[in-house]
Specification:
The chain has about 300 residues and is an alpha+beta fold. It is about 45% helix and about 15% strand. The protein has helices spanning about 30-35, 105-115, 130-145, 155-175, 185-200, 210-215, 220-230, 235-250, 255-265, 270-280, 285-290; strands at about 10, 25, 45, 50-55, 60, 65-70, 75, 85, 95-100, 125. The strands form 3 sheets. A 5-stranded antiparallel β-sheet has the order 2-9-4-7-10. Strand 5 and strand 6 (about 65-70) form a beta hairpin. Helix 3 (about 130-145) packs antiparallel against helix 4 (about 155-175) and helix 5 crosses helix 7 (about 220-230). About 30% of the residues are buried.
């Protein structure tokens, strides 16, 4: 690595000001010039982010992949995901930030977490000319309302315009993809709650039975739910989240293996090494050596 880093920087939107509108739109070119080198260093957010690139050129890193920027490419960065801009300060487009609290209904809450914002393998889409026109019309409406702060219902118009924009973009995500959640199923609601609990507690070494207790269901029922929704056991989802965090810390920080183990809830570094190797096929040390030259 070029520099010693003991943590991955995390940014927030109006964290100290919950009374503010939990939403913001920026001109991407102005934002990049203002952020300078900071945005080119891998970081995460406690909020959701949409990056709409108008023109082709450069790359954008999201977790462990580098995505070539294409014309009218839209990137969906979920909260806590790691990403970084390249060094190009002349990039053109829109940058949209919003907190989860900006939406108020369960169906929207699930929509944000488990569809376009949870497409780890493909967090970016190229939108066609027709979708570009639709997206621009929603952006124009949002910007108009932002300039009318305090007007009757202005927050609702921004909220519903953003939701409409997301729905149109979600349609692109669903093309050729038959695996998506239904919002009318009790299993999907429970699955969503389970995923959120994992996100909040994966560093605490909780067992499947611990999570089941928090959900007021049995361990067997929890595994039935996860198998039904995503085809994986409840324990697999816990392990995947722990390994994901370990890989992020190995790639984006210079922490020692023992420090990483402690940071994600392991008291014994040697057990962490065995645990990591069981899932990745190599030790944390070798994984870091293999991936670092690719940054």
């Amino acid at each position: 690595m070029k520099e010693q880093r003991n943590n991955i920087e995390k940014y927030h939107l109006h964290k100290a000001h919950p009374e503010k509108l939990q939403f913001a739109v920026y001109d991407l070119n102005e934002y990049r010039k203002r952020s300078g080198n900071m945005a080119a260093v891998a970081h995460s957010h406690s909020y959701y982010q949409i990056i709409w690139f108008f023109n082709e050129g450069g790359n954008h890193i999201v977790d462990f992949k580098s995505y070539p920027i294409k014309k009218n490419m839209i990137l969906f960065i979920s909260k806590d995901h790691i990403h970084a801009f390249d060094e190009n300060l002349n990039v053109q487009g829109y940058l949209i930030h919003f907190n989860e609290s900006f939406f108020m209904h369960n169906d929207v809450d699930i929509f944000l977490k488990y569809n376009i914002f949870n497409a780890i393998e493909n967090p970016c889409y190229i939108i066609d000319n027709e979708t570009t026109k639709i997206a621009n019309s929603y952006m124009d409406l949002i910007k108009k309302e932002l300039s009318s702060k305090g007007a009757f219902g202005y927050e609702d118009i921004i909220r519903f315009s953003l939701k409409s924009l997301l729905i149109n973009l979600e349609r692109i995500h669903r093309k050729g993809n038959n695996t998506h959640l239904k919002f009318n199923s009790h299993y999907e609601l429970q699955f969503a709650k389970y995923k959120e609990l994992i996100e909040e507690n994966y560093q605490k070494s909780l067992s499947v039975s611990d999570y089941a207790r928090l959900l007021s269901i049995s361990s067997k029922t929890l595994t039935t739910i996860t198998k039904s929704v995503i085809g994986k056991s409840a324990s697999e989802l816990i392990s995947e989240r722990i390994i994901l965090e370990a890989k992020r810390l190995l790639r984006f920080t210079s922490l020692q293996i023992g420090e990483i183990a402690f940071k994600i809830g392991f008291d014994d570094a040697s057990y962490f090494v065995k645990y990591f190797k069981r899932f990745e096929g190599v030790s944390p040390k070798i994984y870091r050596e293999q991936i670092l030259p690719k940054i």
